[in-house]
Amino acid sequence: MTVSTFSAEAVIGPDLARLWKTRHDKERFQWSSLGLLTPAFGLLIILFLIPMGYAVYLGLTNLTLVGPTSVQWGYTGLQNLSRLRQDTTFWSSLWVTAGFIGGSIVGVVVLGYSLASLLMRARTWMRVVVGGVVVVSWMMPAVTAGMTWYGTTIQGGALGTLTGLHNTNFLDNWPLVVVTVANIWSMTGFSMLVMGAALRNIPSDAIEAAMVENASSWQRFRKIVLPLMRPTMIAVVLLTALLSLANFGLIYIMTQGGPGNSTNILPLYSYQQAFSYNNLAYGALIGNVMVIIATVFGVLYVRVAGTKT
């Protein structure tokens, strides 16, 4: 008994079979495309890699703003790294930064989602008014936002007047909480817009089917909304972390890192070391630590964005 076997070569011939097996839709690298990327690579090298490399080198020197080493400075090896490891103010600043970023992430995500969810059910005039106010607070410059919250939370400010606590200085008593709330207030508009767009993309028939099955609001959120919103929420978390890490102006205007070091986040501490204490090299080293932290968040954001698309 003979067993017949099917093969592409037997049906269409060997030449056509080879073409049939070759995928023409797969991505292929073209060396000619490097020429088109040359200007972008040039800008990346000039505007980022060279300054970044120089900043890393400065962190390993004894450069100061004034004094003999402001002119005659040189490489000192790992001396600044050893100082950084033993610097208790740096580690305190790192924990303050973590608290500031963590509190901002929770507030921005929760408040942004809550506003977006509520405004989807609100009347048109309410969406326009509330959404406009929130977006204006997001577009407000850091200096303006800082002055607004400073005037609101100091003794005799608007918050004390509204609550009847005229002699309470909220900014002095709870500085980290106040600056974190101010940061949340200034970034909620961004979160609300992104969350609102994601909520509008959720299929309405999935929600309606869950309601037909008598699913509660919490069950609909946990089983339908949250899984579909997860990539957007992760992106908001990472962007909030990056923007909060770079929010130098808000805290500088409100507290300048005080009282003590209670709001002295890493950008402020780097600035103080470089321009208040004249230690440019040590300030550059702290800035390099910030770049490493920002790079971690940036890589995570790119990976999440790539997964989402």
Shape: flat
Uncertain segments? 1-6
Span of the ends, CA to CA: 54 Å
Strand content: under 5%
Total count of helical runs of at least 4 residues:
15
Topology, element by element:
Elements: H1 8-12, H2 14-21, H3 33-58, H4 79-85, H5 88-121, H6 124-139, H7 142-153, H8 158-163, H9 170-173, H10 175-200, H11 204-212, H12 217-245, H13 248-254, H14 266-276, H15 280-308
Helix pairs in contact: 3-15, 5-10, 5-12, 6-10, 7-10, 7-13, 10-12, 12-15, 14-15
Give a description of the structure.
The protein has helices at residues 8-12, 14-21, 33-58, 79-85, 88-121, 124-139, 142-153, 158-163, 170-173, 175-200, 204-212, 217-245, 248-254, 266-276, 280-308. With 309 residues, the chain is an all-alpha fold. The protein is flat.
